[in-house]
Amino acid sequence: MKKSTFILLCITVCGLTACSEQKINEWACGKEFGQTRCSNLANKAYHAKEYDKLKKYLEISANYGNVEAQERLGLLYDTDLLGEKDYKQSVYWLQKAAEQGRKHAQFSLGDKYQNGLGVEQNYTKALELYKKSAEQGYADAQLYIGVMYDKGLGVEQDYKQALAWYQKAAEQDNANAQALIGAFYNNGLGVEQNYTLALQWYEKAANQGFAPALTSIGHMYENGQGMEIDLTKAKEYYEKGCKAGSQSGCKKLELVKKKISNQ
After folding, report:
1. How many folded domains does the chain comprise?
2. Integer Cα distance of 210 and 168 in angstroms
3. Is residue 75 part of a domain?
4. According to the model, what pLDDT value does residue 182 have?
């Protein structure tokens, strides 16, 4: 901030009394001209791990009506950066941002309704919000709609609908969706069982380091699903899955090691 500008703002905000730059920054966050600066200050506070300052800047800007600040504040309350999570405050601010069409806010608010966090559980409301977000191309929302149809959460179970939504998310390289499509082909859910296509989809997710997909490929090699049994390959994929965080992969790794040693 230029010195002359600082002095002018100081006079505007504090009259002729002493005034800190911090106070001016907070004042500017509540004004239209100060929104860009406020966003920069919030980013600076976040990277400095000064979360109380981050909250203050976002609150002032959010109360002014800045939709980005409302969304960020809602997401902040959804973390433990301020101490304990506060789902009610998260819902309050996400609702404001969602009403203005913010796709991330719509998705996150949908998740709150799906899981009853800060609101009464409501699958219908969750699906409605996910669809608003999905229509804007948000891959995670598309994935979650697929899960709702897959599991029959608030809707009649429909594998074909689930697959269609997984496909939308997978086209955006969502690894979770790609792995789930692989599972559908592997198990013949809503489609004819096809191990070749299952492997192709698992590999798309595995190439992104997605642990469940790595483990699933290992399972295919171990059991000869669409291929010759290859315990060495199975061990290789289980090791990758285990390192990527799959508990199932770790367990299967120990079992396949025993199989190999008993050959």
Report:
1. 1
2. 18
3. yes
4. 98
- pLDDT tens, 126-162? 999 999 999 999 999 999 999 999 999 999 999 999 9
237, part of any domain: no
Please indicate, yes or no, if residue 127 is contained in any of the structural domains.
yes
Asked if residue 221 is part of any domain, the answer here is no
Any long-range contacts for 73-80 (C-beta under 8 Å, 24+ apart)?
74/105, 74/108, 74/109, 75/104, 75/105, 75/108, 76/51, 78/108
pTM: 0.85
End-to-end CA distance of the chain: 73
Neighbours of 80 (CB within 10 A): 10
DSSP collapsed to 3 states, the chain: CCHHHHHHHHHHHHCCCCCCHHHHHHHHHCCHHHHHHHHHHHHHHHHCCCHHHHHHHHHHHHHHCCHHHHHHHHHHHCCCCCCCCCHHHHHHHHHHHHHCCCHHHHHHHHHHHHHCCCCCCCHHHHHHHHHHHHCCCCHHHHHHHHHHHHHCCCCCCCHHHHHHHHHHHHCCCCHHHHHHHHHHHHHCCCCCCCHHHHHHHHHHHHCCCCHHHHHHHHHHHHHCCCCCCCHHHHHHHHHHHHHCCCHHHHHHHHHHHHHHHCC
Q: What is the CATH number of the domain that holds 24?
A: 1.25.40.10
Q: Which domain holds residue 54?
A: 15-136
| pLDDT score of 251 | 97
The two tokens of residue 146 are 């697929």
Low-confidence ranges of the chain (pLDDT < 50): 1-13, 15-18
